[in-house]
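User: Predict structure, ligand manganese (II) ion.
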Amino acid sequence: MLHEYKRKRNFANKGKKAAFPKPFAPMLAKLVKTPFTKPDWIFEPKLDGIRALSYIQNGKANMLSRRGLNLNHRYPAINQELADMDERLILDGEIVALDAEGKPSFQLLQQHDELSATAAKKVQIIYYVFDILYYKDRDLRGLSLNDRQNVLRHVLSSGESVKVVESLNCDGKQAFQICLDKGLEGIVAKYAQGIYEPGRRSENWLKVKVTQSAEFIICGYNPGTGSRKSTFGSLLLGYYDNSGELIYAGNVGTGFNAQLLAKLKKLMKPLERKTSPFKEKVPNGRLVTWLTPELVAEIKYAEITQDKKLRVPVFMRLREDIDLHQTGPTPVVKAVPATVAQSIEEPKTDELIRTHLLDQSENVNLLVAGNSIKITNLDKILWPGNTKTGPLTKRDYLLYLLDMAPILLPHLKDRPITLIRYPSGLSGQRFFQKHWNQNRPSFVDTVEYYSEHNDTDEEYLICNNLSTLLWFGQMSSLELHTAHSRVNPEPDLNHPDFIVFDLDPYVYSGKEAKGAEPELNSKGFAKVKKVAFWLKEVLDQIGIKSYLKTSGRTGLHIYIPIVRNVEYERIRAVARILGEYLVSAHGADITVEWAVSKRTGKIFFDYNMNARGKTLACPYSPRSTAEACVSAPIEWSELSDIYPDDFTITNMFERIAEKGDLWSDILDNKNDLHVLLSSKKMNILNLVPKKT
DNA sequence: GAAAGAT
DNA sequence: ATCTTTCAACGCCGA
DNA sequence: TCGGCG
Ligand SMILES: [Mn+2]
Ligand SMILES: [Mn+2]
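Assistant: Predicted complex:
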């Protein structure tokens, strides 16, 4: 709908008085990797359709695509509405088809183009206008975007098929998050003071895409098999580089439905030829049916590989509005403009993540520190919980991780990690995971070291940031087990930060299936408390400060922080001597026996976890118990009064809010084992009877 | 749960 | 597009 | 060296 623009003083006479311009190319946006926030920038949703400039005068409208294709007849309703404005105008916008949910869908737009006039009426096609470049007798291209948008909003209001794009009224990161959630292609950031630069890919317009896509030329196809035997298996893609040479960009074999396969086959038939259009030799070119390079397709892809091929390409659609020489991968601007570096606030991004996790949708894309993390099945039940908590879902778990991250991450930092994954929840299959040899998200740190097991170097996962932590949560890693040594700082992974004691009750409840591990029971836990106090007694005598936590399952973990000047083997030997000493004093209640059958009724004093590559549930890790108990740091003075299921993912955060992290200073209170071993204080251990 | 393969 | 399949640790103990 | 073990 058109309005008379009355506030002449400010804007209407601001543009340059000029004759109605000849058609020009639209201003284009450069691609950047990460969303940003910066004053003086405006953020709009990136709409996925056909870009169109509309030239309106004398009661007629001319809609032209990027390539200059006339779109008037394809979109008659829009054309009519523009013509009815009966004003001299040039508008810039995107023609979009909306699906049932009101989401732009280029697939729908494409289908619409092929439908009969009557059938086409059922699809909602909208022209979203985001810029005005000429009004009455003025050329507005020299005005700032701010001024142009002021004119646009006064002149146009949204009608039936022509609507004005609303800027996203928030910062760039929020805008990007909103687009992720709504399934939009991305955002366009526009500098408010920038002029309109026809035909230029300007720094003043920056697009941030969820995934990248670009146009490529179909240059041949490989034969298909099975259901694809009658059409084709994959398409060979190419593009023209700056010197005009046709470059091979790899093959695309997914993204087609039966209808599209048939249509492409038909379109390709008349273009078939004997010779390759490429100058370069294409690998496995024997079976290829070559084509004269004429068909342009939009291809979505993850990235461009070193050898300039598309990685994970997916066919999106044919693009007849793109010129053959406008093809090829979209160059990515290395960084956002320098001024953006002074970006103001990094405000409450945690709060933003929280709101998205609390959103009722089952799947979301979280934006965490500039990383997009795909989260699925938020309502999947991971732990059955109890009558008080109800079932605990992935949503609950991710919220726990988000809340606990400031406390949890320092305990994970630089430590190789073992994930215990339960993709189908606690009752499903379980497996351990230390590596991720597929394509790893860029935010995940790893360390490479020699694995005796595989007799080669392997890459091990490390959790050094919130993105990684939430990614682990997404993958239903119900337990997080960390190594006792760190990658950083010096010296290395062979020198642990702790001597660890893993106390496991082998006191059976009687309800276990035969051969099963003992379940949590009060007798067993009472006994493990007793043993822990005996151990503390010895450590106190030597003058060693120790840290205590529940394992979260049935036992207790006791850690002695040490200066990193002793290797695992020595540590293990010391731990063993302590264990054997305790057995000599309390043989009825403590055992170091390896055979399970010999442990019955006793506490297994497991010194053997002191080894590189061995991991234990980290502080605050949930465990595979019905109620999602967590490994909870406790004060020695609390031990008499607690039980493992006092601490779960539903209440740990409250406890932290009250007591803080009882283990936060564990790395600041180290014992020097060298000094201790040479002091008389260790004499107590000489009481250990020598084994024969 | 993710990626690759089959139809 | 949808379904199916495969894969996802490791070091020490003691016989 | 290999199955048991956590
Ligand atoms: Mn244990
Ligand atoms: Mn154990």
